[in-house]
Structures are given as structure tokens and as C-alpha cells.
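Ticket 4471: requesting a sanity check on a complex prediction with zinc ion. Repro inputs:
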Amino acid sequence: MSSAIAQVEPLTTARALRGPFDYLLPEELRAGIAVGSMLVVPFGRREVLGVVVGLTEHSEVSEEKLLAPLRAFELGVPIDLVALAEWIAAEYCSTIARALRLVLPPGANARVAGRLGMPRQRRSTVRRPQHLPVGALHAEPPALTDDQLAVLVELRGLLSEDATAAQLPAQRLLHGITGSGKTEVYLQAAAYALERGRGAIVLVPEIALTPQIVGRFVARFGETVAVLHSRLTPAQRREEWRRLRSGEARVCVGPRSAVFAPIERLGLIVVDEEHDSSYKHEGDPRYDARDVAAWRAREQRALLLVGSATPRPESRHALKRLRLPRRVDGGPLPHVQVLDMREQVDALHPETTQALAEVRRARGKAIVLLNRRGWSNFLSCRSCGTVWGCPQCDVALVLHRAAGLLACHHCGHRERVPVRCHCGSTAVARHGAGTERLQHDLAAALGDGERFPIFRLDADTLGGDGGREQPDAGGVGALLRRFQEAPAGVLIGTQMVAKGHDFPEVKLGVVLDADATLRFPDFRAEERTFALIAQLAGRVGRGGEGRVLVQTIAPEARAILYAAQHDSDGFLDGELERRAALRYPPFAHLVRIVCHATEAPRAQAAATAIRDRLKAQLGTDAAVLGPAALFRLRGRERRMLLIKTADRRASVSAIGAAVQRAARVRAHAGVSFSVDVDPQ
Ligand code: ADP
Ligand code: ZN
Ligand code: ZN
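Returned C-alpha cells:
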């Protein structure tokens, strides 16, 4: 029996729309349509893409009034991903249409517009990993260490038929220091899932920064792996999706969005470097791929395995833990020394200068991390004190000297470097130093052409000129390769230099201004600072002795001291205590509402109305904080509310309703709203 009426979600961006809508299926379409099928439907005066979310015999609309779909696609979304989209819409206070866009085959929207013609597609063959280093890849699995073996035995148990049949929700945290062999564990767990006829998803932070792990999966599994990364052409992307959907590929490796890979009979989802902030999506729906992975794994009775050397307090609290406490090569972690900068006048501590000079003498390699791009943080007039700020945002403009401009790191605004102030003075002072300046100074002090190059890795060196923090993936890979191939030298850069890559010859790591991340007004500031130092330390001294120097004006800060001791347990215990006391995640959920408007009073009024409504509705289960002013961004004034709640579902739905209601009030015309559940 095939149903006559399809319930379709039209994929429009309108927030107020309440779908699904019923369409009458003509006889010839009935047999082929299922939940997840993609249709083009008449909608108002337009033709839009829609996804079937239900089938029925009866509609509340009389049959004569029902419209029929215009056409259907061969490809559809797997039914479990339709359910996933419905969950995401509710969980992150978004709409089903927006959530469905996340799970569509790549390019589906473009095809409706007719630009790519109908779904019949030519196969694209260029897809093997041209840009991935295939250095020391062993396709054959090595014999495991005792620690790895113990972990794998437990994971195999969880992946076995018995565990699946018992429907145990299986989630594990793999807490292993850098170089302890976590990736090898992922590989062998995935191989075991494949043996059992099940598929696997492996999430990594950003392919360009973690090419080695992708290379290892491809070397081990060959054509069974589909890799989704940002450098694929649209055709390659569609082809990878098709290979997964058809079952030709059973393992998918990719960043955040790979959590939506259309894999049937999923057995394992790995989240590598689970502490990485790139797992949170910044557009609507503001999903967190780690939570999506957990939901999908639970629904599919698959094993969720999240791994890190610096796990989040949330994961430490919620998940049973497996440990890899030693490096595979048996080497020690590098010695970390904290350098007090409070009495120092120069940017580099004398110890740092000396250590870098030693690296140069020994023709070795060093990594220097400074989490600040550009030449100077800001410019001011020595005569009248004016600070050059962004006309669109209330922040100072950063000098990018080589590009000859001042740039806003929030909106991308640029302008020429000023020669004089509006007061007439030509005395312009430059304050602070970023990576561009550091590269210049180090090159002057230590550089020696090809024999001792100073590389810089940040968004500016990768094709940009000071605007946005949007690294080009190809550029990152090429630069890291040049550093790897150079006989000696220094790599300086923003936090990107602390991620993923292994460089066996790096003997010195330096963190400058380590407390910079601590100064952010964010409850995750300590966690980030700890992870940054510990992760950089993990890049240093692989295969031998290493040393890390941490420059800071807060030498007794908890995050810095624990990182210097390599004591992630000590740090996590203290952090969980602090979070429990302050009712922060994982002991409560946070939701952030931001009201944006051209004029501050409007944003304030809308935020106040929402706050009053929520206070009345949520009672004592939730704390509603604010409105608080955020700095003006892209010409928009912003007011924020923060809700701390124990009952996430109830609060999210009350918040959704309150925001919708505020959006409909005439007095709030011109105000826009964004809701972020679990903001980062
Ligand atoms: P992690 O992911 O914890 O940083 P990796 O899995 O990358 O660690 O392992 C670190 C290095 O040790 C890699 O070069 C890897 O190929 C190698 N390795 C991992 N497990 C083994 C093993 N059992 N025997 C030999 N080498 C191993
Ligand atoms: Zn002036
Ligand atoms: Zn700006």
C-alpha cells in the first residue's frame, strides 16, 4: 500500500512558517516516495525544494485543494537523518527546514534553481588525497602497546553483537596524552566495526590542520573511506555523499558536518580532539557536532568514542573514561617552565631569547604561539589620545603593516594606515605586538634565509590581508609542509600551530602572553588556556627531549600551573568543582539570546520584554541574567540575556516561544534575535 498524501517541509528560511504541508501524490509517484524523499513543490508563487517528513491517507485540507509536487528526485535523505533534523530543530531552537538543510545531499538546493540540471550526475573520479602528507603511513596495523590493547578490548566488547543486542548506550572518553596512540585505537575500532558489517564516522577538527589522521585512514581503508573536506569541488562532494549513501564507502572522515554522513548501520562515531571549539556551528541551527554525534550514536545503538589529551570537563563528568597515560615511544613529556613577565620590558623573556638562539645554533626547530594577529593591537594619537576604532564595531582596529592597512577583526572593515590624526598631529603610537611583528623581529634577530627560516601561520599569511579569521585550507597545508621539510627554523602563529600536526624535530615550544585567553569574560577561559598550553606541549619533543616556555603576567593562574605539570586530572577536578559551585555546564545548561538593532533602546526594550516573560514562565528552575550590553558589531547594537537552567527541554521551548512572540510585536520592529543553546 502506498500513501496518497505526502507531508512536506518546504526548505524556506522563514522562521514563522509552520509546516509540514500536505501534497497530493499523483499515482505514478506514489510507489517511489518515502520519508526523506526530496520533491520540488509549488509553494505560494514559488517552486521550492521540500523534504517528505511523513506519509498519510488523510489530510485536514480537502483533496481538491491539495496541490501536487512538480517533480521528485531519485536521491533522498535517509530516514534516520530526517529524525535527526527534527531533533536538532527542537534542541537548538531552530526550524525543521533549516535543520533539514544540514542533512541534504550536497548541492541539492542549487539543483532546484536549475543551475545544475536534474539529479542524474556524472561521476567525478578525482578524489584521492592529493593534499595529504602520506609520510610515515603504515597501511598494516602495528602491534598494539599494552595500554592500547586494554582499551581496544573494551571497545570491541562494546561493538560486539551482544552489546548491540542488549541496547546499551555505549559512550567512552579516550583520555590519552599526545602521542599515546589514540589514532591507532580509532583505526582498529573502525576496522572492527567494519568486520561486524557496520559503518563509522570519524570527526576531526579541521582537515588542513590534521591531515595526518586523514592520511592514515585512507592508507588503512582505501576506497572504503570517504573524506569530506573544504577543498573538495561541489562535484567531488556530491560523489563522496553518493558513495556513502550507496554503501560503497562505509567510513567517513571529516570535520563537524561529517556527523551528517549518510551511513547506514552505523557502528561507531569517533570525535577526535573533542575539546576543539570548531565542533560548534556558528550559523543557525547552532548545533554542537559532539552532541549531535551522541544523539545519533544512541539512536543507532552505535558506540560513541570521544578522544583528547585535554578533554572537556563536560566529557570527563559524563563519560566513562579509558586512559592512555604514556607515549607510544616511551618518551617523556617536555619540561614546561613558566616565565614571569611582570617585570619584563621586552616582548621576549631573556630565557626565551636564549632558548631560541640555542635552537638556531643546533639547527633545530621551534614553535612559537601568540594568539594575536597583525603588527600592533591598536594605534593612538600621542597628541590628543584618539584611538583608531572600527566605524561599524566598538573595537580598536589592528595594524597590518605589510598590507598597509588597519583591519577590524570582527567585521572585516579595512582602511588605510593613517599618516595624521584629525587633530593634525602626525605622532601616531603603535601599541602591543601581534604575529606579524613577531615574525619580523625574530627574522631580524635569528633568521638565516633558507638555512633558518621563520614561518608564520595565521589567517593573514594564507591569502587574506588582515580581514577575517578564515584560514584557507590549502594554504595551511602547504605552509605546514614547508616547515616540516625545512632542515631547521621557527614556526610562529596563532592557536592553529598547537593543533594536530606532528613534527618530530621540534625541540622547543614557546607560548607568549599565555594569559591572553584567561582575560576573556567567559567561563571556558580557563579550560581554553589549559588546553592551548597542553596541546602545544604535545607538539614538542616527540621522539626525544623537549622543552616548553610559557610567558605570562599571571604565573600563578590555576590553568597555567596545571598545564605546566601536565596534570589534566588535577585541572579537571578543580574545574568541575568550580563549575558546580557556579552552576555552569555540565551542572546546568546555558542559553544565550541576543537582540540586535540599529538603536540601543530598541534592542534593550526587546531584551527586557523577553526577560520579563521568561522570568514569569520559568520560575525558580532557571536564572535569567541580563540584559547586558555587548559591544556594537557591524553597526548593530546588541543586548544579551543568559539563561542558566536545569531543565533544558522546557526552557528551550519557552525561550523559543518568548522570542517568537517578541518578534511579532510592532514596537520591536527592526530588532533581530538569535538564540544559542550551549553557546561557546
Ligand atoms: P595520538 O593520536 O594519541 O597523538 P598517534 O596514534 O598519532 O597518537 O600515535 C603517535 C605515533 O605513534 C604515530 O606516529 C603512530 O603511527 C605511532 N604508533 C601508534 N601506535 C603504535 C604502535 N602500537 N606501535 C608502533 N607505533 C605506533
Ligand atoms: Zn590626535
Ligand atoms: Zn568592525
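Notes from triage: The CA atoms of residues 128 and 222 lie 9 Å apart. Leaving this open until the requester confirms.
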